[in-house]
Amino acid sequence: MLLRILIVTSLMTVAGGRALAQQPVEPLLQKYCLGCHNDTDKEVGLSLQTMASLKAGSDNGPVIDSETPAKSLLAAVLHKGADNAMPPDGEPQPTDAERQRLLQWVLDGAKIKSMAAGVPSVPAVKPFDKVVPALLASAHVPQHKAVAVAGARHVALLEQDSLEAKWRVAVDNARVTQLSLATTQPWLVAASGMPGVNGKALLLSVDDGRVVKEFGGHTDAVYSAVINPSDRLIATAGYDRRILLHDVDSGKVLKNLDGHNGSVFSLCFDPSGKLLCSASADGTVKVWNVETGERLDTLSQPTAEQYAVLISRDGKQIFAAGADNRIRTWQLVSRDTPRINRLTASRFAHEQAIHRMALSADGTLLASAAEDGTLRVWTTSPLEHHQILPRQKRPVTSLTFVNNSKLLITRLDGSLELLAVKPSTAAPSTSGGPSTAEVASVMLPEKINEISEAENNNDVQNAQAVSLPATITGVIKPDGGNDRDVDCFRFSASAGQQLVLEVAAQQNKSPLDSKIEVLTTDGKRIVRTQLQAVRDSYFTFRGKDSDTANDYRVFNWREMELNEYLYADGEVVKLWMYPRGPDSGYMVYPGFGKRFAYFGTTPTSHALQAPCFIVVPHAPDEKLTPNGLPVFPIYFENDDDPQRELGSDSRLLFTAPATADYTVRLTDARGFSGADFSYSLTVRSPKPDFEVAINTRKVSVAAGTGKEVVFTAKRIDGFDGPITIDITGLPAGFGFSGPIEIEAGQLQAFGTVYATDGAKEPTPEQLANIKVVAASEVHGEKDLGKWEELELVTDPKLKVLVTRSGASDEQPPSAEKPLVLTIQPGDTIQATVKLDRRKHNGIVSFGKENSGRNLPHGVFVDNIGLNGLLLLSDQSEREFFITAAKVIHESTSTFYLKSNVDGITSLPVTLKVVASNGLAPGKQVTNR
Question: Which InterPro entries match (predicted)?
């Protein structure tokens, strides 16, 4: 009773001075209360951050009695000396006057505005020079032939060519950080707010700048505010991590999109207005369904804060950029239901964080600005570098395209400028071949000249002249006390002429570790290609030796793609297969055995965390546009054979850039020499060709099963085309999954010889008719020899059948009517493997990364885990997934599954890779 009297007395003391009620109470709440009672940290379940949270009360019930405010729990705890007085002892305490103001606030109904959880401590610093209001945002207003600009406490409309002001309005106590234009109405939407206090969006009239409506609800500064294409909905987001959807007519908040755990810096509607994308300090971009508020996807590939997000004019691509210096694009497919939006490109764009992007009106160009003052323009399809704009000395705060050919930039110092942009048709060259000469078809004679090394040929000035083709024999031995010997030979070549240079040393038991270089006659190195880095990375988990072709674990591997080149410390490899799970890395070419190197580089070891780069080849004389990453010149030189056929002996394919004399210099790579360091160096014309090896010519097979045959190609002198292989003349009842193809650039293909129910034991005459053939368009057909043995088995341990998932009512596939599956690049389909167990009840394994035999390069059995495609002893059926990389092309081929039980295979399955959406034969389940 006494406490109640004291409270009423205190309230009556201030009741006569109504001026107390006119003073804002929010600063006092921020100073003494919000540290513990905010939306994030709710002590006893109470938040005083917004009116809604105050009305919600605490764990002890309501804190405001609307009928008798003096009886409110909030009034009780505000009384000094009460048992449960707030703030608690040990915390800063309000003065008597401040307590009276708080008590009067309770008596008046405790109305508050939304606010931040704390008040920043800002020192009183006076400017030492004239203050010019900063410009922070801009937008093109084509219907007025104008641009809108905004910044600290103002918005203005300027004529788009002269940049003269049409109108200027003040925005009280706020800064505008983004402007966006309505589609059908004469409105501008401005994102504004005061850091640490509140945030809102302003709807402004384009005609005169007056404020039509305000949209609040944020407790801190709003960084982005956009209006949907129908002009019925405004989305706002900012420092408080909330995304609010406001109804334009009523001003009400329709939805609160929660999901980011960092500030939201950028928002963008798609052209339909049904989707909203958001970019956040949490390093993600999210896709939202506007109608339901459902999060459709989280794009998690970025590795740092994302400051800008845009959607292409056709609504098919998402662009995002941020503190990891990259611009990324995704294919936008999650439109109605959650679905993975596939990453389509990632470009290292600037050396520092990218904080602004803008799309041209026709959507063909993308501009980006970074914290280091660099400005760049990109083509959008594909995402390629287009133009470097002048570097800015003062921070750029916004980008806006005007008429597709001009880019408006605003700066922090209040200045602005229109910059000229090249037309989008002026795309840079991406050629990787020689530009100084066409490849010539100059062939040397067949007969090779046998030449012995002459004395005193240890520098380019005294190089020994040789007539090609030639095989030169010599020794790298000490000469006159010089421990390092060098042998040089001069030859002539025509522009574009190709030559093969090969060393035989280790092959002949010589201790020489040869290195060869082709130089100009004055000793200058000749550039073979320029490799421009487009993405940076480094080795994770473990380093690499100089042989391994698998488990290439590199940082940010998801932004890499099959057949891209990876450069590390002078070596170039080519990515062959994706990592197959959390405990694996990329496989590089050729996919088995020792790895290959490209552009004449030499395989070498790489340390853990050593840097590496995705690189793009360019012509030697091409002028490259700097992108902030290194450019690596590759010269005509080689240490060890890149194809790993000659061991430590050298092999180099040289293309003459001009008709001239050249010098080949031969040394020991370690600088050693000796009387027994002998070699032979052959210089000749290339003779592109191939050979094919077969792992077996003997097969035992049961009806309804198959056995595998492996074909391995040896590619000679740069021949890289496809090779077709078939087994012909098989007796009735037997078949082969061919013709199969060793694809261009690949070294292996796999086939299965199978039997049907009508098969009979072949006669010797029938066996003699079986032969293996290989062919290419260039070389025609080659006979690979006779078959040796074909045996019919009557009691297999099991049979393997591949069927379409969910097709239990269909006729099982057979040799006469094989299963046909269809897949699109970038998609995943589902199938089922079934076992007919006869004499084997144990585990059946179909392998790990190689479980789908003879799938086209870039198509693989997916989601196999650490154990691969495996059926346990009590299983006779399992679904599995087949994924196609986005880079593969249309094709039709056959594949099968091979078990670990006597090598028994399934019958072949036909797989069609199609570009159109004709997926009836296969069940599409997801996007990669």
Answer: Cyt_c-like_dom, Cyt_c-like_dom_sf, Cyt_c_Planctomycete-type, Quinoprotein_ADH-like_sf, WD40/YVTN_repeat-like_dom_sf, WD40_PAC1, WD40_repeat_CS, WD40_rpt
Task: Determine the length of the chain.
Answer: 928
Q: DSSP 3-state helix, strand, coil percentages of the chain (rounded to 5)?
A: 10, 45, 50
Cα–Cα distance between 476 and 483 in angstroms, integer?
A: 10
**N- to C-terminal Cα separation, the chain:** 70
Residue whose entry in the numeric block shows the structure tokens 């292989």: 725
Q: Side-chain half-sphere of 774: how many Cα atoms within 13 Å?
A: 21
Listed residue (236, 233, 217) closest to 225, CA to CA: 236
Contact of 223 with 285, CB cutoff 8 Å: no
CB contact burial 917-928 (16+ within 10 A = b; e otherwise): eebebbbeeebe
Alpha helices in 571-679 (DSSP H): none
Cis-peptide, bond into residue 818, ω within 30° of zero: no
User: Which distant-in-sequence residues (6+ apart) come within 8 Å of 345 by Cβ?
Assistant: 327, 328, 329, 382, 383
Q: In whole angstroms, what is the distance from residue 772 CA to residue 749 CA?
A: 14
Instruction: With CA atoms as reference, report the closest residue to 434 among 501, 518, 528, 532.
Output: 528
Q: How confident is the model at residue 441 (pLDDT cuts 50, 70, 90)?
A: low
For residue 767, list its beta bridge partners.
none
C-beta atoms surrounding 856 within 10 Å: 22
Name which of 41, 44, 42, 33 is nearest 106 in CA terms.
Answer: 33
Q: Which of 880, 905, 750 is nearest to 815 (CA)?
A: 905
Question: At residue 347, what is the residue type?
Answer: R
Question: What pLDDT is attached to residue 480?
Answer: 59
pLDDT in tens, 494-532: 999 999 999 999 999 999 999 999 999 999 999 999 999
pLDDT in tens, 634-687: 999 999 999 999 999 999 999 999 999 999 999 999 999 999 999 999 999 999
- How confident is the model over 368-406, as pLDDT tens digits? 999 999 999 999 988 988 999 999 999 999 999 998 889
In whole angstroms, give the CA distance from residue 184 to residue 164: 25
Predicted local distance difference test score (pLDDT) of residue 14: 40
- Rounded to whole angstroms, the Cα distance separating 344 from 325 reads 17
What whole-number distance in Å separates Cα of residue 587 and Cα of residue 861? 15
Q: Sheet containing 820-823: give its strands across.
A: 820-823, 909-913, 891-897, 852-853
H/E run at residue 155: strand 146-159
Residue 51 φ then ψ, to 5°: -65, -35
* 369/355 Cα distance (integer angstroms): 6
| Tokens at 284, concatenated | 């993600």
Task: Kindly state the DSSP code that residue 226 receives in the 8-state scheme.
Answer: E
Contact 526, 685 (CB under 8 A): no
Decide: 687 and 444 in contact? Cβ < 8 Å: no
| Residue 773 C-beta-side C-alpha neighbours within 13 Å | 15
DSSP class per residue in 487-555: EEEEEEE-TT-EEEEEEESGGGT----EEEEEEETTS-B-EEEEEEEEEEEEB-SS-B-SS--S-B-BT
| DSSP β-bridge partners for residue 529 | 634
Tell me the three state secondary structure of residue 587.
strand
Query: Cβ contacts of residue 88 below 8 Å, gap of 6+?
Result: none
Binned at pLDDT 50, 70 and 90, residue 922 comes out as very low
757: number of Cβ within 10 Å: 9
- Residue 779 contacts by C-beta under 8 Å, 6 or more apart in sequence? 689, 690
Q: How many CB atoms lie within 10 A of CB 99?
A: 19
pLDDT, residue 267, reads 97
From the list 708, 788, 719, the residue with the least C-alpha distance to 749 is 708
The 3-state DSSP class for residue 479 equals strand
The encoded tokens of residue 563 equal 């057949």
pLDDT at 31 (0 to 100): 81
CA 508 to chain centre: 47
